[in-house]
Amino acid sequence: MGPSQAPAGEDRTVRRALLDAALEVFTERGYTDAGLSEIAARSGVPVGTLFQHYGGKRGLYLALWEEFREEQERRTAATLNAERGRGVDDPIALFVAGSRAYLAGAWDNRRLAKLLAEDDGPAGFDRMRRQWDRAWVRRNARLLKVDERQRAGRVRVSVLTTVIGGAARELGDCGDETEAREIVDEVCGILVHLSAPPG
User: Which CB contacts under 8 angstroms, 24+ apart, belong to 192-199?
Assistant: First the structure.
C-alpha cells in the first residue's frame, strides 16, 4: 500500500505526530531555527512523509495556526450558543462570555498560543494574522451590536479585541491555573467596563 493509500486513521495519527513534534521544536527553538530533520526525528515520521503531508516547515506552522483558530472559534461559538440557550441576550454579557471562553482556550493551548503570538513565523504570516484579527474585530462588533461604520464604534471594538489578544499572550507566562484564572477574571472585568457604550 503506497503513502497515498494509507488508511484515514493512520494518516491522522501521522499528521498528529508531526504537528505535536513541530510544536515542541518551534516552541523550543523558534520557527526560524527549527529544523525539519529534528521535527521528523521527534515524530518518528520520515522527512519525506513530512513533506508529503505539509510541504515543509511553513505548512506545519500554518496547520498549527489553523488548528488553534478553528478550536478557538468552536469553543467560543459553543459558549455563545449555550448562553443564548439559557436566555442570555445582552450583547455585553455574550461578549464577555465568549471572551472568557477564548481566554480559557488560550490557557488550555498556551504553548501554541504563545508560539503564534511571537514575531518569528513564516513569511507572510503577519499579513494572515492581521486579516484574521480584522475578521475577529468584525465578529466582535456584530456580537456587541456596534455600527462599524462609525469610527468610535470601530475603535472601541478594536481596543476590546486587542485587550483579549494581550491577555491571551499573558496567559502563556502564567505559572499555574490559579494565576491564569485571576488574569481571566481581571480581564473580563475590564471588558465589562470598556464594553459599555459611552454616555
Answer: 192/92, 192/96, 194/156, 194/159, 194/160, 194/163, 195/91, 195/92, 195/95, 195/96, 195/144, 195/156, 195/160, 196/92, 198/152
- pLDDT digits over 22-68, tens only? 999 999 999 999 999 999 999 999 999 999 999 999 999 999 999 99
Q: What is the pTM of this model?
A: 0.87
Euclidean distance between CA atoms 103 and 107, whole angstroms: 6
* Digit-coded pLDDT (tens) for 74-86: 999 999 999 999 9
Fold classification of 1-55 (topology level):
Arc Repressor Mutant, subunit A (1.10.10)
- The CATH classification number of 62-195 equals 1.10.357
What are the contacts of 78-85 at 24+ separation with CB within 8 A? 80/143
Give the number of other CB atoms < 10 A from CB of residue 127.
Answer: 9
